[in-house]
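Progress report, Aim 2. The chain analyzed during this reporting quarter is listed below.
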Amino acid sequence: MARYTGPVCRLCRRTGEKLFLKGERCLTPKCAIDKRSNPPGQHGASRRRRVSEHGTQLKEKKRARSIYGVLERQFYKYYEEATRKSGVTGEHLLQFLERRLDNVVFRLGFAESRAQARQVIRHRHMTVNGRRVDIPSFRVKLGDVIGWTERAQNMGLYKIIVADLRRKPLPNWLSLDVETVTGKVEALPEPTEMDVKVDDRMIVEFYAR
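Predicted structure tokens for the chain:
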């Protein structure tokens, strides 16, 4: 499966803000954007030209892609699927991204970042409704229960996650059973419940040109 393999801190510097792609590290003084806030590249610190409306839309699309760790081809497929549904296209697009299994694993606090969540899933440590799933883009649905495989419960990472679960905030559309270390999709995510500040309207306008 194709994925971005470059330095993720570069993506934050390109957008000019923290995207929290490295989890807890982004809250420490080691965060790259705190050290060098200028854009990457030889001319990053030089004066930039005024960005056009199309450029602003492109930047917002890249920002959303970077946050969720999705490459262009798959991101555009989400957009095409969203256009076929009745209602607000941008809201459907964000809902598809939020319902990705790697995002849900991250939201439940089972990983420090979406990148780590993808790794955990690919290593076949996660289950959905008791069945092992190793596809990060797997889309959860209402009522799905996300848990760990029996083998994963012997890992050091699992023990660290369990010890840290109670202090992590949880979106309203998910529930967490701390005793069994499982999460459940109680509802589909609404725009007001998504803490990712992405202007979906600008993304839709970019593709609709």
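The chain has two domains: 8-97+196-208, 100-185. The domain at 8-97+196-208 is CATH 1.10.1050.10 (Ribosomal Protein S4 Delta 41; Chain A, domain 1). These observations will guide the mutagenesis work planned for the next reporting period.
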